[in-house]
Amino acid sequence: GTGDRILVVNFEWGGFVPAAWSPDGEFILLSFTGADRLNRIATISVDDGSLNVIKTLGRHGTAKPSLSPDGSYLVYDYHQGQGDTNHDVFVLAIDGSSESRLVTHPSDDDRPQWTPDGERILFRSDRSGRMALWAVRVSDGEVVSEPEIVRPDIGRMVPIGFDREGALFYRAGNRMSDVYVAELDAGGTKIIGEPAPLTDRYVGTNSQVVWSPDGNSVAYLSFRGPGGFGSPHLVVRALDAGQERELPIELFDVGRFTRPIWSSDGKYIMMEGTDPGNPNWRRHGVSYRVELASDEFVREPYPRDLAASAGGKSLFASDRQTAGLRSAGRRIVRNPSLYVDVSEQLISLSDNGVSLRYSNTGASPTALFNSLHIHSWALSPDGLRLAFASAEDSTRTDSLNSRVMRIMPIEGGEAVEVFRVAQKSEIIVTRWAPDGAALLLYVETEDEDGEIWRVPLDGGRPIRTDLSLTERQLALLDFHPDGSHIAFGTTEDWTEIWAMDGFHWTKDR
């Protein structure tokens, strides 16, 4: 705990990750992002802090590089190609004199780690259909055998490194999520009694619950696997009979924060997924219609209209909201460039929440409302009004808290203030009551405690409710058609550090 000293100070660097000491203790291997936003792998001299960049990568980062026990080579993962989100494993001489792809496969191979004897590289791969731990033998920086599976079905395990005895330390994420139903009081400001679980099957894997239009069934997602991060299923549960239909979601990668949406006639469920055939599929998303009569997944030509956004979580429009948008000649979209030959004007919300904008495809956007900060917004149940929280004064850069709630017509016009919170508080989540007569707002206060307010839109007095819901629960809860009950999820995340021992190649074990 003594003799500490600063090796280097550089305020232009970002994403600084020390990776390993050299065997002789003369340098430290690291990765960082430069002022040009390009990622680099480098060494820093322990003696004088001098920097030696070994490899300059692109704007995509890399996991922590791993140094060979003799200090001659390092391994790292990087995208297989431009626009490809899967990784390959690369080996690079520490002096930069040579480099090659060590592991090449169409699957995603990442997080490489050198074993203590220097004879193998461990890495994660989903080539077997599920994420597993694999190993490949190496000599002088070259592969000498085909990869072999070491441990199947590792879930979200993230290798950290080996100790001297050959045990692999790793980080494991765990999640327990379940779905509940609760009754509301007459004013919609308090839960009556204790919430009741909707199912006792696959406990800890269930989320994103929504009511059917007739209120007799619910649909929810179930991620079945280690730590609640496994294979996604769509489950439809009849509440009276307690019967469940399970539909494995195999055609696409479903977004965990994308809630299913029932059609108004109850014949199909809309889901947001991803298109592996699109190089930008993780960003754009694709809408699928799940036909309940045939269990068929049918791709829609365009992603579903957005209906709300809070803390990075997207909710998608119902049939009623979509009908309202179309009657006004509008769509609310994530990426206008995807839409061709549509007659409606496209409302898009920028990722940083600077403004609400609309445009015809190919035309310059026109601002519906400008603000330095729009934190949370929601479309009314009839699809004709937008509610959003924004900064008090759009000209002041010293006040970015979204503390003023405004409502405006979807066609544009005056944004009318309906509520505001204290100077150092912020509106984080905006939800409409199912009848459109009030807003439910999650407010983060100065001491970081959360409050839920019910704001009537008829001029009545705002009420601080006794709803004991988290920000995430309010963002994703669903109202029963009669408004007297809610369905919501509970989620607990935690991370643990584990050690894995007993590898077959470990000597004297």
What order do the helices and strands come in, and which of them pair?
Layout: E1 14-21, E2 27-33, E3 39-45, E4 51-56, E5 66-67, E6 73-79, E7 87-93, E8 99-103, E9 109-114, E10 120-125, E11 132-139, E12 142-143, E13 148-151, E14 158-162, E15 168-184, E16 191-197, E17 206-211, E18 217-224, E19 231-238, E20 244-248, E21 261-262, E22 268-273, H1 281-284, E23 286-291, E24 296-299, E25 306-310, E26 313-316, H2 319-327, E27 330-333, E28 345-349, E29 355-359, E30 366-370, E31 374-379, E32 385-390, E33 404-409, E34 416-420, E35 426-432, E36 438-444, E37 450-456, E38 463-464, H3 471-476, E39 478-479, E40 485-500
Parallel strand pairs: 27-28
Antiparallel strand pairs: 1-2, 2-3, 3-4, 5-6, 6-7, 7-8, 9-10, 10-11, 11-12, 11-13, 14-15, 15-16, 15-40, 17-18, 18-19, 19-20, 21-22, 22-23, 23-24, 25-26, 25-31, 28-29, 29-30, 31-32, 32-33, 33-34, 35-36, 36-37, 37-38, 39-40
List key phrases describing it.
509 residues; mainly beta; 6-stranded antiparallel beta sheet; 5-stranded antiparallel beta sheet; 3 helices; 47% strand; globular
Spatial extent as radius of gyration: 26 Å
The percentage of residues in β strands lies in over 45%
User: How many strands, which pairing sense, and closed or not: the largest β-sheet?
Assistant: 6 strands, antiparallel
Strand order of the largest sheet: 26-25-31-32-33-34
- Oligomeric state as shown: single chain
Provide the structure class. Answer: mainly beta
Total beta strands: 40
What does this structure look like?
The structure is a single chain. The protein has 509 residues and is mostly beta strands. 4% of the residues lie in helices and 47% in strands. The chain has 3 helices and 40 strands. The protein has a 6-stranded antiparallel β-sheet with strand order 26-25-31-32-33-34. Strands 9, 10, 11, 12 and 13 form a 5-stranded antiparallel β-sheet that branches. Strands 14, 15, 16, 39 and 40 form a 5-stranded antiparallel β-sheet that branches. Strand 19 (231-238) and strand 20 form a beta hairpin. The longest helix is centred in the middle third of the chain and has 9 residues, at 319-327. The protein is globular, with a radius of gyration of 26 Å.
